[in-house]
Design brief:
Blueprint lengths: L1 H16 L2 E3 H7 L5 H10 L3 E3 L2 E3 L10 H25 L1
Antiparallel strand pairs: 1-3, 2-3
Helix pairs in contact: 2-3
Length: about 90
C-alpha cells in the first residue's frame, strides 16, 4: 500500500516537473520491476508512451496567464503592505 502511495506521489510530481521522461528513468523513479510495467502504469494514468519516452499531458488547470499571475502578485503585495502598516501601528 505504501509503495503505491509513494509511486502515485512521484508520478504526480513528475507530471508537473517534466514534459517527458525516458522509460528507463521512469522505471527507476517509480520503483517498477520492468519497462513493461512502466508502460502499463503510464497508460493507466493517461500518459503517452512513444519512442522510448513517456510524454505527460499538459496540465491545463496549472497553466495560468501572465495577467492572472500579475493580479495575484498585486494582491499579495497589497496584503503585505497592509500587514506592515498594521504592525507599525501596534509597535
Amino acid at each position: 500500500v505504501l509503495i503505491g502511495t509513494i509511486r502515485d506521489e512521484i508520478a504526480s510530481c513528475s507530471e508537473k516537473a517534466y514534459p517527458s521522461l525516458p522509460i528507463a528513468n521512469a522505471k527507476n523513479l517509480l520503483f517498477l520491476e520492468s519497462e513493461g510495467s512502466v508502460v502499463d502504469f503510464a497508460q493507466g494514468r493517461g500518459w503517452v508512451v512513444r519512442d522510448g519516452r513517456i510524454y505527460f499531458p499538459q496540465q491545463q488547470e496549472d497553466m495560468r496567464t501572465e495577467r492572472e499571475i500579475l493580479v495575484t502578485s498585486g494582491q499579495v503585495i497589497e496584503n503585505t503592505i497592509g500587514y506592515a502598516r498594521e504592525l507599525e501601528t501596534i509597535v
